[in-house]
Amino acid sequence: MIRVLLADDDRLVRSGLRALLDAEDDLTVVGEAADGREAVDRARALRPDVVLMDVRMPRVDGVAATREIVSWPRRPRVLVLTTFDLDEVVDDALDAGADGFLLKRATPEQLVDGIRTVYAGDALVAPAVTRRLLAVHAARRPADPERLRAAAALTEREVEVLRAMAEGLSNAEIAARVWLSPETVKTHVKAVLGKLGVRDRTQAVVWAYRTGFVGPGTD
């Protein structure tokens, strides 16, 4: 059973999310929080598997709460929910260590699958609209040529894999594109993360957009 903590300042949103998640056989909501401070306190007390974190909340926002939670030696996974065109701090949330994010207009199926995905230890970058959101926010910031230098250590195949990751492709989809086995792609992904000095594939995608390695209009 995947234990979920809901952090959102809108009570109606929390009620809707609770009804949706509790209807699933493998999900259960163990608590709720109305702001970031309460989210941190409840996460520490309840020890959920996943925190579903809103970005904009009173007192302490979701970015600061995420940063504190992911600093713990043993911590829940954090899946951030954001509103397209409103939350300009979404990439800051990912920088803070969020394991992924979804738009609030995601379908119930996407939300449920997203929770299962981050619980399993995978980072969540899809669906396509989320990739566009990353690109939009990254485009508002200047490219970081200093960090971009790390790309020089990537092999041609690793560059190809990183670009596919930035498109939001899964390992299986990347494997089909570049004619490799999923296991080999997984090895390449691990190498990319190591060379870039990032924690997971979500952070690798943020790195790719933040540095200008990929971006709007990049082939």
Automatic annotation (TrEMBL):
Gene3D superfamilies reported for this sequence: 3.40.50.2300
Annotated protein name in UniProt: Two component transcriptional regulator, LuxR family
Keywords: DNA-binding, Phosphoprotein, Transcription, Transcription regulation
Residues of the HTH luxR-type domain: 147-212
Listed GO biological process terms: phosphorelay signal transduction system; regulation of DNA-templated transcription
Keyword Nucleotide-binding: no
Molecular function GO terms recorded: DNA binding
InterPro entries recorded: CheY-like_superfamily, NreC/VraR/RcsB-like_REC, Sig_transdc_resp-reg_C-effctor, Sig_transdc_resp-reg_receiver, Tscrpt_reg_LuxR_C, WalR-like
Keyword set includes Phosphoprotein: yes
Stretches assigned to the Response regulatory domain: 3-119
Pfam families (alphabetical): GerE, Response_reg
Residues recorded as bearing 4-aspartylphosphate in the entry: 54
